[in-house]
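sorry for the late reply, my laptop died twice this morning and i had to redo everyting from scratch. anyway the thing you sent over, i finally got around to it. pasting the sequence first so we're on the same page, its 221 residues, then the predicted structure underneath. double check i copied it right bc i was rushing
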Amino acid sequence: MSKNEIAKRYILFIISLFFSALGVAFTKNGELGVSPVSSVANVMSYKFPSLSLGTWLIIWNCILIAGQIFILRRKFQPIQLLQVPLSFVFGWFTDFGMWLMSFIPVNTYFMRIIMVVAGIVILGFGISLSVIADVIMNSGEAFVKAVSDILSKDFGNVKIAFDVIYVIISIVLSLLFFDFTVVGTREGTIISAFFTGVAVKFFCGNLKEPVNAALFHKSNV
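ok and here's the structure:
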C-alpha cells in the first residue's frame, strides 16, 4: 500500500468520524437516548453538565482504549494508540454537531423520532466509511474486537452482548444519579441498537466498490 493511499484512507477515516459524530448529535438532539456505546457518556453528561457530551465521549473512549490494553496486553498493537487522538477528534466533532443541532427546533415527539432516524442513517453512513477506510477501528468497535479475539467468539455476538451491557450500565448509573429515574436512555437507544447495523450494512454494500474505485485503485495504476 503506497503512502498516498494510506493518507487517503486516514482522511476518509477522519471524514467518517465527522459523520459518525454528527449522527450522535442528531440522535442526542431528539432527546430519546443515543446509541448504546455512547449511552454511558450521555448519562454522565446529564449528571455533570459542566463537561460536554463530546468531552464525556473522549473520556469514555479512552476508558475503552485502556480496556483494550488490559485485555490484549502484549498483543495490543502500538498503531492502535492512534485511537487516542482520533477519540479527541470524534469528541470535538460531536460538540460541533451539537452546536449545529441547536438551531433545529424539536418541539414534537414526531420530530424527535425523525431526529433519531436521521441520526441512525448518518451514523450508519459514518461507520460504513470507517469500514471502507480499513485503517483503524474506533475505540468502541476495537474494544469489542479485543474481547471477541481473546474469547474466540463471533464479533457480532460479542457486540450485541456489549451493547446490552452498555445500556444496563447507563440505566444503573441513571438510577443512582437521579433518584431511581431513568435519564438519557430511552426508546431512541433501543431503536439505534436494532437499526444502526442495518444502515451500516446498506451503506457498505452500496458504497464500498465505488469509493474504493474512486480513491484507491486509481492510485495504484
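The chain has eight helices and no strands.
thats about all i looked at so far, will dig more tmrw
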